Amino acid sequence: MVFRVFVEKKKELANEAKSLLGDVRTLLGIESLEDVRVFNRYDAENITEELFDYAIKTVFSEPQLDIVTDSVEEDDAYIFAVELKDKFGGVITADDIGLPVKSTGMPLPCGSTAIWTAK
């Protein structure tokens, strides 16, 4: 079984999201963009649920700094997936998450994830 968790910095500590928002407004000229959220997705397999729950608080996040959830609402987002072959015989699956920009119709990148699976 694959366990999945999404981790996001608390709003007041979300410096990467704030920086990305500023870059989009300044460099791309999309002044109407009001907010950007950046999530890291972690997948784990071949472990127990108890170990995964422990890892959420000790490996994947810092509870005093992060918000942890098991899903992300995707109603206004685009998600892209890419599978890369690894030289060690496994498979790496990577995903990018983007928000739709109404003025251009293009997605705005706002997060990425990756998982390596042995074959």
Tell me about this structure.
- With 119 residues, the protein is an alpha+beta fold.
- It has one domain (2-117).
- Helices cover 21% and strands 40% of the residues.
- It has helices at residues 15-27, 49-60, and strands at 2-9, 39-45, 66-69, 78-85, 91-100, 107-117.
- The chain has a six-stranded mixed beta sheet with strand order 3-1-2-6-5-4.
- The longest helix is centred in the first third of the chain and has 13 residues, at 15-27.
- The protein starts with a strand and ends with a strand.
Please give the alpha-carbon distance between the first and last residues. Answer: 15 Å
In angstroms, what is the radius of gyration?
A: 16 Å
How can the largest sheet be summarized?
6 strands, mixed
Average of per-residue pLDDT values: 80
* Uncertain parts: 80-84
Helix content: 10-25%
What strand line-up does the widest sheet have? 3-1-2-6-5-4
What is the overall number of helices?
2
Residue share in β-strands: 35-45%
Count of all domains: 1
H/E series, N to C? EHEHEEEE
Helix and strand arrangement:
Elements: E1 2-9, H1 15-27, E2 39-45, H2 49-60, E3 66-69, E4 78-85, E5 91-100, E6 107-117
Parallel strand pairs: 2-6
Antiparallel strand pairs: 1-2, 1-3, 4-5, 5-6
Keywords:
119 residues, alpha+beta, 6-stranded mixed sheet, globular
Q: Can you give me a brief rundown of this structure?
A:
The chain has helices at 15-27, 49-60; strands at 2-9, 39-45, 66-69, 78-85, 91-100, 107-117. The protein is of the alpha+beta class and 119 residues long.
